[in-house]
Every structure is written in C-alpha cells, then in structure tokens.
Specification:
It is built from 14 helices and 14 strands. The chain has 326 residues and is of the alpha+beta class. The protein has two domains: 156 residues, Sandwich (Jelly Rolls), CATH 2.60.120; 118 residues, Homeodomain-like (Arc Repressor Mutant, subunit A), CATH 1.10.10.60. β7 and β8 form a beta hairpin. α4 packs antiparallel against α5. The radius of gyration is 20 Å and the shape is globular.
C-alpha cells in the first residue's frame, strides 16, 4: 500500500492508525511531498517513509513491538538527540516507551514492527541471552555493511509481499550478537535532548496558548539562555520559530480537515488562524506560504483530508492497516 502525504499531520494520522500515538511537524520550508508504504504480514508488518522536508516525530511507541529501523539514504536521522551513523540499526530498546526523531530532507527509513515476545523467545531458544541484555540497555547499533544491506533487503522484500519474517528476525538477532556489533548507543536522552523533547511536547500539547519564552522557561524548568542554546544546536533555529512551525502544522491540518473544523467550530481561514493564536491575517498568510509553499486558502480548498492521498481505499478501510494493528 502506497500513500503520498503532503502534510506532517497527515503522516501523523497514518502512524496513529498503526498504534503509534505520534505527532509530526514540518521544520523546513517548502511544499511537503512524502511517501509512506506499508506491507508485510500480520506477524511482521513493515513500512517505509520518504520525505523531502525536515520532520520531527514525537510521541509514544506501540507497546509490545520493537520498531526495528534503518535509514537507506545518506541523510542521517537524529534519534533521541544523537545523529545516527551510516549502516546502523535503531529502535530495538525494549524498555523505551517514547519516540523522539528528526528526519532530514531526503531521508528514507525502513521499519519492521517485530513482536517483542517473539524476538525474545527466539533469542532464548538460540542461546543468545546477551542480546536480551542488549535490548534492555541499548537502542542503536552499528552494523557491518554486509549485515546492514542484508536486513535492508529483507525488509524491502517483506514490504513488497515476500514472506521474510523468520529471516528478518534471525538476521536482526545475529546482527545484535556481541561478535558482530561495532558499537551501540543507549538511547538515553542527554540534558539538552530531554529539554528539546519537552519543548516539542509543549508545542504539540498547547495549541492555543500564547507563546512566550519567559512562560516556557517556568513551565519546562530551564533558563531562557539554555532553551535558546539547545534549540539552535538541535534544530538550527530559535525556540519561538520552532514553536511557530509546530503551530503552523496544526493550522495546516485544520485547514485540510472538515472533522477538525467541526470540532473547533471554525470554517474560514481567519477563524482557524485565530483559533491557533495567529491574530494578524497578513503575517499569518506570509508565514504559512513561506512554510508550506502555498496559501492557506489553497489548503482549505483542497479536497484531500487529512493531507494523505491513498491509491484506492481510505486509510481507515485499508486491510493492510487492519492487519498491521493486530
């Protein structure tokens, strides 16, 4: 199943149908043209994401699932504040319940939704008890080029309909064995990364509250200078700009979703912009066009809802989605 998405909130909506309570925002300027693919089997669903814009993903992981992830492009994602290396594997930390990922423009990630129970049973049956310890304390691992290519090819084959479930799990287990590992990272958030995660979370959760740096400092228990410093280091921009980008993503979703418009009681561009804290019509229209490459009225007029175009069936009715949620 292939879906083209033109809004961050559209990608978020699809991830939520798979059981991931995920918020997504676009950080770079320009029209978003992304591709989401879903395939595999009920036992091992797989998906891939390609994006031409910088995105930040924040939220909760799906319980009982190890989202084994790798990036096949030369644009390295940032996972939990750490830039990933070429040829590395991520997402297998069994004790983590949250996600904080930055996808740069040009990234192409593959994700296999491996059952934690089945993977642990396989590790026990093959005597790979050290791997059980590893997935309780690490979230990323550097692989050999050959092993990375093997797992990527298996996930791609599973995505296209071939039954590679056993091979994917076996190859991942072997890749995480001590004799093959070339280094790991824990996935533990550093001070700056934890602060930025809190900042992004505040942006998604406070859709209408006025954005003031002094208020943020008191809310997330950090100094103004610390917030500014870590935000520029992490996102290349200041906190006020970052939060405005998150707020604009929420406006974009509302403009393209009749359900959201009904829920908030707003129908026009001006009403929706005001609802999300943009009182100046001219400034809002300029910022919106700069961020998304089109006017807010063009988004409102577009028929797609919520920013996804599915090839033949709606997301909610897709049998692949239903299969992947089991």
């Amino acid at each position: 199943m292939k879906l083209d998405f033109n809004s961050a909130r559209g990608l978020s909506a699809t991830l939520r149908t798979l059981g991931f309570e995920m918020d997504v925002a676009q950080l770079s300027q320009g029209a978003l043209n992304g591709v989401f693919r879903l395939g595999g089997s009920r036992q091992l669903p797989v998906f891939s994401i390609q994006t031409n814009q910088d995105l930040v993903l924040h939220g909760n992981r799906r319980p009982g699932v190890l989202p084994i992830s790798l990036n096949t492009s030369d644009q390295n994602p940032v996972v939990r504040g750490e830039e990933t290396q070429q040829g590395s594997l991520h997402g297998f930390h069994a004790s983590l319940s949250d996600t904080f990922v930055q996808l740069p423009a040009g990234a192409h990630i593959q994700v296999a939704l491996v059952s934690q129970t089945r993977f642990e049973q396989l590790a026990c049956s093959t005597g790979e008890h050290q791997v059980l310890d590893l997935i309780q304390g690490s979230n990323s691992a550097n692989l050999s080029p050959q092993r990375f290519a093997q797992i990527s090819a298996l996930i791609q084959a599973q995505l296209m309909g071939a039954d590679q479930e056993d091979l994917i799990q076996a190859a991942t287990l072997e890749a995480l064995s001590p004799q093959e590992l070339r280094g790991t990272t824990s996935g533990e958030l550093g001070v700056g990364s934890a602060l930025m995660k809190d900042l992004v979370s505040w942006g998604f959760e406070n859709t209408r509250q006025a954005i003031r740096l002094d208020d943020l400092s008191a809310t997330i228990f950090a100094s103004r200078s610390s917030i500014v410093q870590h935000c520029r280091q992490t996102f290349g921009t200041g906190p006020m700009t970052l939060l405005k980008q998150i707020r604009l993503a929420q406006v974009q979703h509302a403009l393209g979703s009749s359900k959201v418009q009904q829920a908030i009681g707003c129908r026009t561009v001006q009403e929706i912009a005001s609802h999300y804290g943009f009182p100046s019509r001219n400034h809002f229209a300029r910022d919106y066009r700069n961020q998304f490459g089109e006017s807010p009225s063009a988004t409102l007029q577009r028929e797609s809802d919520p920013g996804m175009r599915l090839q033949s069936v709606s997301v909610a009715q897709s049998p692949q989605i239903a299969m992947a949620r089991r």
